[in-house]
Amino acid sequence: MEENDRKIKIENAKVVINYYNRLLQISPLDEGLLNKLAEVKHSLEVLRRAYKIIDYFKSYML
To answer: I want to staple 44 with a disulfide (CB 3.0 to 4.6 A). Which of 11, 13, 36, 37 is the partner?
Structure first.
């Protein structure tokens, strides 16, 4: 169950990052919104990397 939740969160992060990138290509956005989206994108990328690191170490523990 926990593994599935993690995979779902990673997939959701990918979707949001792709959506963010498409928004940037489509139209210029309000600077405040753009900054907030950049923060969200960064946070999701950090979260995705953290899960990969956890999985890496978890594989050695098992």
So the answer is: 13
